[in-house]
Amino acid sequence: MNGIDLINLAAVGAFGMILSASFCDIFWTKRKKLVMAGSMAAIFMLQGVIYFGIDPYIVEYIYPFVTHFPLAVVLCILNKECLWPVISVLAAYLCCQLRRWLALLVVAVFSGGAIMQDATELVLTLPILLFLLRFVAPAVRSVSHNTVSVRWQFGLVPAIYYGFDYLACIYTKLLLEGALVVVEFMPFVCSAAYLIFVVWSSEEKRIRSRLEQTQGVLNLQMEQAVREIAALREVQQKTRIYRHDLRHHAQYLSSCIENGRLEQAQEYIHKIYSEIEANAVTVFCENEAANLIFSAFSKRSLDYGISFEIRAGISRDIPLSESDLCILLSNALENALHACRRQREEGLSGAIEVLAYEKNGKLFLQFINSCKEEIAFRQGIPVTDKPGHGIGVRSICAIVEQYGGVYDFSAKDGRFILRVSF
C-alpha cells in the first residue's frame, strides 16, 4: 500500500464519519463537538495501531468493527437513540461510493491505473462532502423525524448494500468472479426498491387525499356548528330581551284592559307567548353549548314526530373545548335523527335517548336511537359504503381519541347505542 493510498484511506474515513454525524439530528454543543472529534481521533489511532502494528491488509476485513461500530455507538450516545444513528452510518457508507465510482469513470476515460484512481478519489472527497453537507444532509435529517416504519424504509437500501459489499467484495470475491446472481443483485435491489417506492407513494397519496377530504368535511361541520351556536345564542338573547321588556308588555296589556280591549290584549298575549316559546332554549344542564345543541335537536325531532328524551348533567368546566363538544354532540344526534327519520318514512316509530353525566372527573355520554336496519361493523366501528356517509362517525372517533377517551358502538334489539367517556 503506497503513501497516496494510505492518505486516501484516511480521507474516506473522515468523509464517512463527518457525513454520518451530519445525517443525525444532533444539537451540536461545544462539548458534543469535542466528543465527536475525540472519537474520530481514537478511531484513527485504532486503525493506525492495527495498520502499522499488526497487518495493513487486515484493516479492510475488520473495518466494520473498528470504525463503523464504535462510530454508531458514539452517535447513539450523542443522539440519545439507537435506530437513526445506525441508519446514518449505513447511508454515509453508501455515499462513499460516489467518489469511488466517479474516480473509476475518470480512470476508464483516461486509461489510468490505481494511482490515478486514488488521486482522483482524494481530489473529489472535499467537493462531494461539501455538496452532501449543504444539500443532502438537511433532507436526510428531516427523515429522522418520521415514523419508525418510514425510517426503516429509508435505511433498507443502504443496509442491503452494506451487507452485499462486504460479503461479495471483501469477505469473498464473488463479485469479481462475475457470478451473474451476484452481479445482478444490486440492480434487482434498485428495481425492487423503486417498485416499492411507487406503491408506497401511491398509497400515501391516496391516504393523504382521503384525509384532506375528511378534513374538509370536518371543517364544514365545525363552521356549521359555530354558526348554529351563534344563531341559538342570538335567539337566547332575544328571549332575555323579551323577559327584560316584560314591564313594557304589562303596561300595554294593562292599558288594553282598562280601555276594554280584551280581545286585543288576548291577541297580544298569544303573540308574545309564541315568540318567546319559539326562541326559548331549554335548560338541560349547566353547560350552555350543550343546552343549545340539545334544544336545537329536540325541536327538530319533535317536528318529525320523533320522541326525544334527555337526561343531562354536564357542567361548565369539562375536558372538551366548546367547538369539539358541539361537533361531537351534533354528529351523534344528527346520525340518530337520520336513523329515526328513515324509520318514520317506513311508518315506524322513532325515539332518541340521551344520557350525560360526570363522575370522578370524567364525562360520560350515551346516545340511543331506534334502528331496525342492519349495521355493518369493522373493528367495532359502524361502516357504510354510501358516498358522503360515515364522516360523522369518523369525526366522533377523532375527537374522542384526541382527548384520550374511549368510545363504543353497538346495535341490539332494534336500537343503536353510542357510548363515549373522557
Task: Walk me through the topology.
Layout: H1 3-23, H2 30-53, H3 58-79, H4 83-110, H5 114-143, H6 148-170, H7 174-177, H8 180-183, H9 185-244, H10 246-258, H11 262-279, H12 288-303, E1 307-312, H13 322-345, E2 351-359, E3 362-370, E4 376-378, E5 381-383, H14 391-402, E6 406-412, E7 415-421
Parallel strand pairs: 1-2
Antiparallel strand pairs: 2-3, 3-7, 4-5, 6-7
- Biggest beta sheet summary: 5 strands, mixed
> In total, how many beta strands?
7
β-sheet strand percentage: 5-15%
Report strand order across the widest sheet: 1-2-3-7-6
Structural class: alpha+beta
Indicate how many domains the architecture comprises.
2
Distance between the termini: 70 Å
Helix content range = over 70%
Please, what is the average pLDDT? 85
Using the alpha-carbon principal axes, give the shape: elongated
Structure, explained:
By secondary structure, the protein is α+β, with helices and mostly antiparallel strands. It folds into two domains: 181 residues, no CATH class; 170 residues, Histidine kinase-like ATPase, C-terminal domain (Heat Shock Protein 90), CATH 3.30.565.10. It is built from 14 helices and seven strands. 22% of the residues are buried. The model has no long low-confidence stretch (mean pLDDT 85).
